[in-house]
Amino acid sequence: MSRLTHVVSGPYAPPVAARELTVRSADGTPLHVEVHGPEQAPAVVLAHGWTCSTAFWAAQIHELAADHRVIAYDQRGHGRTPASPACGTEALADDLEAVLDATLGPGERAVIAGHSMGGMTVLAAAGRPVFRAHAAAVLLCSTGSSRLVAESTVLPLRPGRVRTWLTRRVLGSRAPLGPVTPLARRILKYATMGPAADPHMVEACARIVHACPRTVRHAWSGVLDGLDLDHALREVRVPAEVVVGTADRLTPPVHARSLAAALPQCTGLTELTGIGHMTPVEAPGPVTGKIRDLVSTHVTAHTHAEPAEESA
Predict the structure, then answer these.
(1) DSSP state of 101
(2) SS3 for 146?
(3) Residue 41: CB atoms within 10 Å
(4) Distance between CA atoms of 76 and 25, rounded to whole angstroms?
(5) Beta bridge partners of 30
(6) Predicted local distance difference test score (pLDDT) of residue 176
(7) What is the reported pTM?
(8) Ordered DSSP codes for 39-86
(9) Rounded to an integer, what distance in angstroms lies between the CA atom of residue 216 and that of residue 174?
(10) CA distance to 137, 237, 284, per residue, from 293 (Å)
(11) Are 27 and 39 within 8 A, CB to CB?
């Protein structure tokens, strides 16, 4: 049971997809993609973060799939998408573009939500033509655009070279995480979740994170260490909501505030009191609500307005 890749019961157990498909990225990497909900419903695309998988979005999928077409995919090396030698923000952008192109019809627009590395994926793809053709609005959840290691507060030390050096060694460790034990849960909760996170939330996250191969975890830690997507913020030319937990140690609120200040069309910054890095799991209601509101405002409302505009 210690090697389960996700929990199998409760609100964080991944639902069965209406359909699954394999999408080829620009370099041929086969991406695992799931589609949930009615085919003609307004679309939402979900991009998960480092060491996670589509299972991370289980709470959002359960809620949204009743009246949305929810598209979730595994980042390369994560979940059911195999690892690839190509490891970087350009590859992340290629993958998101491939998913959008394969799952959305011509002219169809969607809300794209990214958590952590998924948010960085959104930033990396923002200037791409396929992204611009399909993105109606975005949610950037618990993410940042640069200085991830320097700003991390996982280690309770004063900011500076020593903390940065030690944090780099911790986050970039090649050591296997091993089975999900009580100690492993405590460590994961401290590093990635708020102090009030319920045990079933911790268990759900631990199963997902521990399922990520250590080679993949290490390879992508290097990408995050050197991340610099500040220039990409001006390319996000659609409405953008930013969400962060005040107890986030991996991407503290300083990142969210910087994003909100730099995004051309930031429509709101929400700081969730006491919530850690795993916001979609720790605060499923607020995160799902933000996605639903973005769809209502920027997808559904525009779709309903088109016939009236044409008749006028």
Answers:
(1) H
(2) strand
(3) 18
(4) 10
(5) 24
(6) 85
(7) 0.94
(8) TTSPEEEEE--TT--GGGGHHHHHHHTTTSEEEEEPPTTSTTSPP-S-
(9) 9
(10) 10, 18, 14
(11) no
Quote the tokens at residue 156.
């309770």
User: What is the distance between the alpha carbons of residues 110 and 126, in angstroms, rounded to a whole number?
Assistant: 14
The 10s digit of each residue's pLDDT in 257-283 is 999 999 999 999 999 999 999 999 999
Strand partners, 272: 245
Residue range 206-233, pLDDT digits in tens: 999 999 999 999 999 999 999 999 999 9
Q: Each residue of 108-128: b (16+ CB within 10 Å) or e?
A: bbbbbbbbbbbbbbbbbbbeb
- Among 233, 245, 236, smallest CA distance to 287 is for 245
Smallest Cα–Cα separation from 33: which of 86, 91, 98, 90? 98
Residue 160 token pair: 């500076």
HEC profile for 191-245? HHCCCCCCHHHHHHHHHHHHCCCHHHHHHHHHHHHCCECHHHHHHCCCCEEEEEE
| 135 contacts 157 by C-beta, under 8 angstroms | no
> Poorest-confidence range of 50-64, 216-230, 291-305?
291-305
Record the tokens describing residue 21, joined without a space: 């498909």
Beta-carbon-side half-sphere exposure of residue 7 (alpha carbons within 13 Å): 18
d(Cα 256, Cα 142) in Å, to the nearest integer?
7
More confident site: 177 or 94:
94
Query: Across the chain, which distance is largest between two alpha carbons, in Å?
Result: 65
